[in-house]
Each structure stands twice: as structure tokens, then as C-alpha cells.
User: Which sequence fits this backbone?
């Protein structure tokens, strides 16, 4: 690889700085450098400029109500509807422009595009159908769907009738679906018969049905037929409580449903994410604050304009797709692309051929994908005209300077700024990144906090650390896109995100600090480099997985006595799952057990959680008090120096494990 030499990497880590490319800055949505100072002085009123990007049925009384921290409220008493903001408001001027450009897999002719008028019509019809099925305001509707147009249609239909959605990533297991439907008491599921992966049809309904069998209450299910147009069929029969999506929409042809008036603080959706315990966390996002945040950040950071063809290559099953495929782009009236397949099918130039064909103007993707592109080589993008691109973005994990530089050169032709955006499911949208027309870029550092976002890097006591020192990332002031609570669990909300650095007895917002569980450092210019999670959560290909969840899946496998799971460095995925397993007496750590462990993890969570390596060991390194030394297991996975292990209860085990990992 041309840029692949270690010298370049070394030079880049010495902080090379790139100015915003001139080709970009002239037309950027946000270009006044005073915005940082202005937002600081005018906080929290500065966030009116985010709310102003939306259409409100009636305006709010107060920008921020911080009388009961950490239960902040934004744009209080404002009324709006998210579906009206994404659709109805664009009809007059942009009704015939494309809202969603969907690229399917595998059949090229199967591509579908929806103008704003068409999307509006289908969302209305499906909203009417959902109502008839009994979905009422505040009923939580679960969606277990891959990247097909009916997913955003269903989300917007729910938003229209004031029913919060809870999207479960299609790659998650049946068990994960059941857990989430039970936790939310969700009585409605929208899913599909199957979808395509690398040209082959996959059965999805079978998995959905298996999940439904584990749901403790009655449910109604809507099933989208994705496969039969291509002549594929798994022979599913719908049961009495299952409805065909196309039939429902046809029955409601031409129906119009007035968007339900929602309060700014009403829930727009729930999104379950992994935490340190086995039970996933139901992150609650609201209609006014979240939508303002997704929209403002898409406008200011991704520079989305109505005339763009904007491409975010994430999956809508994660927060990135919610904020930056669906809500942010559609409120801004742009054309948002949706790609069903993988980047390497039918060939490794798939994304570049899509960008070329549709003249995409932005690409927002994950470092794990960029590292794969880099490995495949620059000949794939070189065979395509990527000159339509104006801006590049990354999200999900730190991007190493070498991958950054490759992206900048081979995809952006040194003419596109790169925004390295740090945020989380809980923050609703971007928090730390450069404003692309204003700030220089430093490969490897996400950038300064966005204007109006108060991030500090602190030590264990909450004191700001000096430039260059590693510390913990904290957010010192609330922001409109923040989660409001964990669904039905205010106590866990406080414990998980606030307790570490807040005076939880106080009702002074100054005493409340949000802790996202990331380590970070900051330089003299205020640029933040995110160092990774500091809790028992690992980040595989930009997806968050709880080690406890994986451990409990492994311990559930017959023959396993104990397991410890850690994240180890991985060239492509960023981190990979390493499982250290003690077998039960009478069982051997053999290939059969290894396979059953992998199958057990896939069944409980999904293939993304599949262990990279399963290491059988007679014991795990423990402290004298019996705590598993995970740090040490991480170091072993990474092949790092271990330092002093003599304080362990069982130091002799370490070499044993090391030998196995290396062998
Ligand atoms: C965690 C959040 C944000 C949507 C996708 C993931 C890590 C995210 C970056 C970045 C370094 C990053 C953090 C964060 N992360 N973006 N630009 N640089 N790390 O959402 O599943 O909620 O995971 O992803 O560790 O806490 P998520």
C-alpha cells in the first residue's frame, strides 16, 4: 500500500494539521468562527437556533428547564410532530424531489426511490393502518428490520401518530428481540420475511417468530414481503395476529392522517444499547430536543443542504442511522441514501460505484469500514469518479491517523474536510467534532466540542487535567439531544451517567456532570482525542457490546464453568471479542465446545458478538480478593507487556494463558 509506511504514521501522530479545503469552505452552512464565543455567551438561548430549523405547531415557553437535574427539559411546552417536520413541510417546495434513494441488494433493478410526496403518501397510509391495528399514542412499536425502505416509513408512521418506536438491529438474535420487547412492554412488531446478504436470501421472519415466542404478552405483527418480488420465498404462513404490510397499505390507499400534536418532551423513540450489566438500557429520546439536535448537527457538521445527495452508510438499527439517515437529513429536506447491502458485494467497489452513479455529496461511515477499504487497496475507488463528494465523516470509534489520511487522499481527493464525530446513543447526535469550514483538522483527534457543548477532560476526582494528560471525558452542561432517562428506570439513569461526578443530593445544575464512560485527552488547542471506553463495554466495528452480556451467553453453554470476556485490539474491527473460558469438570476445551460457545453467543446476541478467540484455561488471573483481572486479560489479548503480576492470587496462570493466545 502506498501510504502504508510506518514513518508516515509516526509523523501523523506528531499531529499533522490540515486546514479546511477551500473548495469546501465557500458554500458551507456554518462558516462564522464567532459561533463558538457567541454560543458560550448566549447559552442556553443559543439552542434556539437549533429549534429554529424545525417547524413548530406552537412555540416553546422556555429553552431549558433545569429545575430538576438531571431530568432536564428542553423547549418546554413547544408542540410539534416529527413526521410533519420530515415530510409535510417539504411538500410545497420539494414534493417531487427524492427524499429516499434506496439501493437494494442484489438486483440492480430493484432500487426504489421515494419523492417527498410519495414518502408522505406511504407514511400516511401505513399510519392509518397502524391505527386500525390499535396502535395508540405512546404505545411502543418495535421494528426488527434490515435496511429496507419500509423501516424509515414505519418509523415516520409511528412518529405521525405519536407512537414511539424501538428499532432492534436486524443482526441481533431472537433472544435480543424478545428481551427488548418485554422490557418495553411493546405489543407491536414490524418485521419482514427476509432480506439479502451477498446475493443470498436470508430468512428473517423465522428469527422474529422465535423472538415473539419469548414475548410474555400478546402481540400483533406486521410483515413486509421483501423477497417474493425476486422470486424468493421461505414458505412462511402468517398467523392470525400477523398482517401483511402491502395488504394493510392497500386497504388504506389514499388515507391521510393528521400528524398528532406532540409535546417537545414527549418520547419520539427508545433505543436499547448495551451497558455493563446484562440488561440492555432503554435510552429515551424526545420529540423536540432530539429532533433539534439531529437536525442542527446534520446542518452544521455534515453540511446537509436540500440539493444534496447525502450518503450515510450506517444501519438504521443503530443511533447513527436514526439521526443521520432518517431524522436529520429528512427534516433538512435533502435526498438521503439508504444501502441495503455490504460494501464488498458484488465487488469491493460497491460504495464507490454508488457514489459515482448517484453523485453523492457526503459520505458518513465508520473507521472499521475505512480500514477495510484501505486494506483492499486504492484501485477500487480509483476506478470511479468520486468528485461529487464534498465532505467525509466518521463515527463510532477512534480513527487512526493512517486510515484518516487514506480516506482524505483516496476518497476525498484532498478536497473534502473530514469530520471525526464523537457521540453516543445517549447524546442523540454529535458532541465533539470540528465545524468543517471553520476548524483545522488533526487526524486522530475528534476535535473541539461543538459550540455550546461543554466538554471537560477530568481526573478521577473531577478536576480538569492538563493538556496532554489522559483523563475522563465529561459533559458539564445539558444539551437538547440528551437522553431524558432510561425507560422506566430513573434510578439507573442517575447511576449510569451522573453519579460518578455529580453531587446527586443537589438541585443545582452546576453540581451535575454527565459521564459517558470514555477516556480522553485534550491538547493546547482544545482538541479532544478519545481513548476508548473505560467501562466493561467493548466497541466492535463501531458497535457497542457489553462484556457481561457475552459472558452470560457463554456461561449458559453446557460444559462452561466460568468465562471472562475482554476487548482486544483488532486491525479492522478496532476491537474484537476475546473469551477466556474455564470448562466444567468432565468437559474438554476442544473444538466442539468452542463451536458451541460461538453458537451460544450468536444465539443470545447475534453474529457481531462472535468471539474472535476462545481461550480455554484452567483458571483466570484473579486478585487476592477474587476479582478477575480484566486489564491483564486485555494486555494478553493485545500481546502487550504485562508488568508485575506477583500480587495475583494465581500468577502462574498468566504464562499459560499467554502461550495459548499466541499459539
Ligand atoms: C461509543 C458510543 C455514535 C454513534 C455510533 C456509536 C465510541 C463514538 C467516536 C469517535 C472515538 C467514538 C465511544 C462512545 N465512539 N464515536 N469519533 N471517536 N470513539 O454509538 O453504540 O452509543 O457507542 O462509541 O466510546 O462512547 P454507541
Assistant:
Amino acid at each position: 500500500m502506498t501510504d502504508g509506511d510506518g514513518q508516515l504514521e509516526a509523523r501523523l501522530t506528531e499531529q499533522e494539521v490540515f486546514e479546511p479545503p477551500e473548495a469546501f469552505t465557500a458554500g458551507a452552512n456554518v462558516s462564522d468562527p464567532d459561533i463558538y464565543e457567541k454560543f458560550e455567551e448566549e447559552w442556553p438561548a443559543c439552542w434556539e437556533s437549533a429549534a429554529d430549523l424545525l417547524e413548530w405547531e406552537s412555540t416553546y415557553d422556555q429553552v431549558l428547564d433545569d429545575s430538576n437535574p438531571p431530568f432536564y427539559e428542553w423547549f418546554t411546552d413547544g408542540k410539534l410532530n416529527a413526521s410533519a417536520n420530515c415530510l409535510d413541510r417539504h411538500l410545497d417546495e420539494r414534493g417531487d424531489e427524492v427524499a429516499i434513494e434506496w439501493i437494494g441488494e442484489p438486483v440492480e433493478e430493484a432500487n426504489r426511490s421515494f419523492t417527498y410526496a410519495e414518502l408522505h403518501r406511504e407514511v400516511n397510509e401505513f399510519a392509518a393502518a397502524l391505527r386500525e391495528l390499535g396502535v395508540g399514542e405512546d404505545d411502543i412499536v418495535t421494528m426488527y428490520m434490515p435496511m429496507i425502505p419500509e423501516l424509515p416509513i414505519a418509523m415516520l408512521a409511528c412518529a405521525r401518530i405519536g407512537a414511539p418506536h424501538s428499532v432492534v438491529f436486524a443482526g441481533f438474535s431472537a433472544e435480543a428481540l424478545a428481551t427488548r420487547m418485554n422490557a418495553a412492554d411493546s405489543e407491536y412488531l414490524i418485521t419482514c420475511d427476509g432480506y439479502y446478504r451477498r446475493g443470498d436470501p436470508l430468512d428473517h421472519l423465522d428469527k422474529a417468530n422465535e423472538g415473539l415466542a419469548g414475548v410474555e404478552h400478546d402481540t400483533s405483527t406486521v410483515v413486509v414481503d421483501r423477497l417474493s418480488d425476486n422470486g424468493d420465498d421461505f414458505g412462511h404462513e402468517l398467523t392470525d395476529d400477523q398482517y401483511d404490510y402491502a395488504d394493510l397499505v392497500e386497504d388504506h390507499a389514499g388515507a391521510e392522517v393528521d400528524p398528532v400534536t406532540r409535546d417537545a418532551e414527549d418520547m419520539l423513540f427508545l433505543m436499547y444499547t448495551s451497558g455493563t450489566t446484562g440488561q440492555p438500557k432503554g435510552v429515551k429520546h424526545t420529540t423536540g430536543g432530539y429532533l433539534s439536535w439531529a437536525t442542527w448537527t446534520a446542518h452544521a457538521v455534515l453540511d446537509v443542504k436540500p440539493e444534496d445527495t447525502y450518503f450515510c452508510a450506517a444501519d438504521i438499527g443503530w443511533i447513527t442511522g436514526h439521526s443521520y439517515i432518517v431524522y436529520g437529513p429528512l427534516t433538512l429536506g435533502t435526498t438521503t441514501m439508504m444501502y441495503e447491502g455490504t460494501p464488498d458485494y458484488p465487488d469491493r467497489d460497491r460504495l464507490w460505484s454508488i457514489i459515482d452513479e448517484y453523485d453523492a455529496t457526503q459520505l458518513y461511515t465508520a473507521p472499521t469500514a475505512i480500514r477495510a477499504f484501505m486494506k483492499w487497496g486504492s484501485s477500487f475507488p480509483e476506478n470511479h469518479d468520486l468528485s461529487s463528494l464534498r465532505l467525509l465523516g466518521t463515527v463510532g470509534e477512534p480513527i487512526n491517523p493512517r486510515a484518516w489520511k487514506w480516506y482524505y487522499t483516496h476518497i476525498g481527493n484532498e478536497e473534502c474536510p473530514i469530520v471525526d464525530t464523537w457521540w453516543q446513543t445517549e447524546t442523540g447526535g454529535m458532541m465533539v467534532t470540528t465545524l468543517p469550514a471553520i476548524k483545522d483538522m488533526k487526524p486522530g483527534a475528534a476535535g473541539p466540542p461543538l459550540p455550546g457543548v461543554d466538554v471537560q477532560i477530568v481526573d478521577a476526582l473531577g478536576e480538569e487535567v492538563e493538556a496532554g494528560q489522559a483523563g475522563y471525558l465529561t459533559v458539564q452542561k445539558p444539551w437538547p439531544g440528551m437522553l431524558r432517562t432510561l425507560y422506566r428506570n430513573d434510578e439507573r439513569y442517575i447511576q449510569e451517567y451522573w453519579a460518578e461526578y455529580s453531587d446527586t443530593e443537589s438541585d443545582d445544575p452546576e453540581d451535575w456532570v454527565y459521564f459517558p464512560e470514555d477516556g480522553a485527552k485534550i491538547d493546547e488547542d482544545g482538541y479532544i482525542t478519545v481513548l476508548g471506553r473505560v467501562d466493561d463495554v467493548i466497541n466492535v466495528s463501531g458497535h457497542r457490546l457489553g462484556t457481561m452480556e457475552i459472558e452470560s451467553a457463554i456461561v449458559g453453554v453446557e460444559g462452561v464453568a466460568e468465562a471472562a470476556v475482554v476487548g482486544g485490539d483488532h486491525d479492522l474491527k478496532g476491537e474484537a471479542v476475546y473469551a477466556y473460558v474455564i470448562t466444567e469438570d468432565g468437559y474438554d476445551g476442544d473444538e466442539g465446545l468452542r463451536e458451541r460457545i460461538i453458537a451460544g453467543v450468536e444465539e443470545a446476541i447475534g453474529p457481531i458478538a462472535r468471539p474472535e478467540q476462545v481461550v480455554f484455561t484452567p483458571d483466570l488471573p484473579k486478585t487476592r480478593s477474587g476479582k478477575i483481572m480484566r486489564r491483564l486479560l486485555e494486555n494478553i489479548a493485545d500481546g502487550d507487556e504485562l508488568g508485575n503480576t506477583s500480587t495475583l492470587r494465581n500468577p502462574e496462570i498468566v504464562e499459560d494463558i499467554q502461550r495459548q493466545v499466541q499459539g
